[in-house]
Amino acid sequence: MCNNKSMTLEKCNEVEDLQCQKLLTTYDGESIRTINVSDIIKIGENNIKFDFECILDSGSQLLGMGNQNSFIDVLYKKFQFKSQHKIFSILLKNENGKLTIGQDYPNYDEITIPFDKHSKYYQIDLATVTDDENNVVFQPNQFENYQIIVDTGSTLINMDSETLQSFQKSFAKCQQDIRGCPQELNYDGYQCYYYDRIRYGYISNFYETFPEFSFNFQNGYQYKLNAKDYLLNPQQDLYCLPFFDHTRNYEPKFQKTILLGQPFMNNKEFYFDLTDSKIFIKNPEAKQNTLQIRNLSDIVQNYYIYVEIGLLIGIYLFYRKYSVQIRGIFRSARTNQGFNPYA
Predict the structure, then answer these.
(1) Number of domains making up the chain
(2) Residue among 280, 279, 327, 326 at smallest CA distance from 117
(3) Which of 38, 71, 227, 267 could pair with 322 as two cysteines, CB 3.0-4.6 Å apart?
């Protein structure tokens, strides 16, 4: 929604500008009104003016980040980064997150996940998903029937009901464990499990009762997703599955959408290479030689900036046109997602 409390927010003139208001279509076809505005974002001691669109209607749909990178383009122009590729990275952890802009990836020739540069979203070419019992959890019969998107805008992993049921079958793995299955609980409509410390001891033993998923891509790249990363922890000793049925409003003209949200990205650093349309993934280093920029004059050839996401809640208002790619990180879960496990 538009941040009407901002003293620097400027809205377009609806009488003079026929393009002042527009309609935004969300993933599954809902239309939401937007309005062209401008405001000031402060990074360090630098005030930068952005033009963007903010929403006028409260919607129940997933808005997401989208493959529209004007926000990154503006920062590259303002800060004159000298990275080999135009790139930014996102690191999400349960307690906070980090956005880094202008930092080169160590090896641009590495095999990784390509995304469709012509799509409005970071749409990827997932071939199959298998669990650690070699069961095929997901395999599209026709690729054109699906949009598979990496998206920080969702605090869950959203999918159609058929795919969701297939994922849920993998959680019968615990029935073969000598410790048995964890106690299953319902929390706010989500399938959750109780971590019995006496029964399991170390949390790693509890995690072992859950499946590990392998996301296999068309180019042969494989991404492992384990319980330590995908389980949500809304309360002490309560761990919930991140999968959410998001099938409403689908019509024949709309593809089924799988949104690989924050649980898919948790505890890994995702580099979005805008030059070659690729997503690189690596384990975060314990320490990084990162500089916090205070003034534009501080920029030199090898510097880049990062933003501690938890400190910048206020900039969520920069929607669709500029900072859609990081918007979801700055906001809590939308109403149709129930609870925010990362709050």
Answers:
(1) 1
(2) 279
(3) 71
- 325 has a pLDDT exceeding 60: no
Question: What is the chain's length?
Answer: 343
Cα–Cα dist 315/272, whole Å: 20
Residue 151 lies inside a defined structural domain of this protein: yes
Q: Identify which of 279, 18, 321 has the alpha carbon closest to the alpha carbon of residue 150.
A: 279
pTM of the model: 0.74
Instruction: Choose from 79-93, 95-109, 196-210, 307-321 the range with maximum mean pLDDT.
Output: 196-210
* CA–CA dist 149, 26 (Å, integer): 13
Question: For all residues of the chain together, what is the average pLDDT?
Answer: 75
Read off the tokens for 314: 């206020």
Q: Which domain holds residue 110?
A: 10-157+242-337
Q: Which residues contact 211 (CB under 8 A, 6 or more apart)?
A: 131, 132, 133, 170, 171, 173, 227
Tell me the per-residue pLDDT of 22-54, one tens digit each, with 9 for 90 and over.
877 655 556 778 888 888 766 666 777 777 777
Q: What is the mean pLDDT of residues 308-328?
A: 30
Supply φ then ψ for residue 3, to 5 degrees. -85, 85
* Residue found under tokens 């205070």: 294
Q: Which two tokens stand for residue 283?
A: 């384990």
Residue 175 lies in a domain: no
Cα 48 to chain centroid distance, Å, stands at 25
Is residue 43, in this structure, part of any structural domain at all?
A: yes
Q: Where are the alpha helices (DSSP H) in the chain?
A: 70-79, 161-169, 197-200, 203-207, 227-230, 262-265, 324-330
In a domain, residue 121? The reply is yes
